[in-house]
Amino acid sequence: MSEVSNIIVRPLTSRIGAEICGVDLSQNLPQAIISEIRRVLLDYLVIFFREQDITPEQQIAFVSKFGKTDTYPFVKGLDDYPQITPVLKLPDETVNFGGIWHSDTVYLDKPPMGTVLYAKELPPMGGDTLFANQYQAYEDLSAPLRGFLKGLKAVNSATKGTAAATRSDRVADAGMGEDRVLEAIHPVVRTHPETGRKALYVNTGHTVRFDGMTEEESRPILEYLFQHQIKPEFCCRFIWTPGAVAFWDNRCAQHYPVNDYHGYKRLLHRITLKGEKPF
Predict the structure, then answer these.
(1) Which of 6, 95, 98, 233 has the greatest count of CB atoms below 10 A from its CB?
(2) Cα 256 to Cα 12, 41, 59, 101, distances in angstroms
(3) pLDDT in tens, 170-215
(4) How far apart are CA 264 and CA 104, in angstroms?
(5) Is the separation of the CB atoms in 178 and 74 below 8 Å?
(6) Closest Cα to residue 188, out of 201, 170, 171, 207?
(7) How many CA atoms lie within 13 A of 236 on its CB side?
(8) Is the model's pLDDT at 133 over the cut of 50?
């Protein structure tokens, strides 16, 4: 029996998300297992592993099997592991980190290809994360609108107020300077470099306007796209449990951390993988 045959894949929905069972992420996984995990990730856009018990070194080792790890520009990583960003909300806080629909750091010239989160401390309930399939969001647009978007680019900014506000406490704690202007222009419709499929690549957290157009001119279409791309039929919802790991493809999926656990601490360890310039 092959090592791959021990893996069980359980889809969460018909369009996005799958749990992978039978894999221990604390181990030095063989290439056959890594290749199968990558295949499932490309098919389902976000994958989940339950009941993992991994050290920071083991999380870094696992993620490094899929590419080079990166650091987050606004929040300092752990002292001994700068690749690991603590995603933290304390009991006395009401704003959660990244608490809006977004793709990670699209204000960079080369946004991360993927993100891996490991649950360290969780509230007794709440704190789920939603994910949305941006292939499907693009494919379900009308042909005339797809034609209009073809060739368009959008300006994405780290200083868009809605997203910037969700990280202000962590930035202040780290003393890393929220006033830096990070901005990048990317295609509105992105071609996935591995699958060749097209995905909608704007998001309410960071996208400001279409390149060459004013915010006022851009707003009606962007607001429609922001609502369209998170329709329930494009989404799955992951309920975190202790030791759970989520790994998503930042090139074709968006996510939204639900902020419904005031009064409790929530801590996850995040690592991102370096990506390529979108085309």
Answers:
(1) 98
(2) 17, 18, 22, 5
(3) 454 555 455 567 999 999 999 999 999 999 999 999 999 999 999 9
(4) 25
(5) yes
(6) 201
(7) 24
(8) yes
d(C-alpha 204, C-alpha 121), whole Å: 28
* Catalytic center residues: 102, 104, 255, 270
pLDDT of residue 85: 98
Smallest CA-to-CA distance from 95 within 153, 12, 166, 199 is with: 166
Length of the chain measured in residues: 279
Q: How far is CA 196 from the centre of its chain?
A: 19
Q: How do residues 31-73 score in pLDDT, each as one tens digit?
A: 999 999 999 999 999 999 999 999 999 999 999 999 999 999 9
Under 8 Å CB-to-CB from 198, ≥6 apart: which residues?
135, 138, 139, 189, 190, 191, 192
pLDDT at 165 over 90: no
User: Domains of the chain, with CATH numbers?
Assistant: 4-273 (3.60.130.10)
Q: For tokens 């707003």, what's the residue?
A: 219
Could you say which DSSP state residue 127 is in? -
User: Cβ–Cβ contacts within 10 Å for residue 5, how many?
Assistant: 9
* Torsion angle of C-alpha atoms 96, 100, 105, 106, degrees rounded to 10: -170
Cα 69 vs. chain centroid, distance in angstroms? Answer: 14
Neighbouring C-alpha atoms within 13 Å toward the C-beta of 46: 31
pTM (predicted TM-score) = 0.93
Instruction: Give the model's pLDDT for residue 177.
Output: 54
Closest-CA residue to 219 (of 211, 205, 209)? 209
**pLDDT exceeding 90 applies to what percent of the chain?**
88
Question: What is the pLDDT averaged over residues 100-123?
Answer: 98
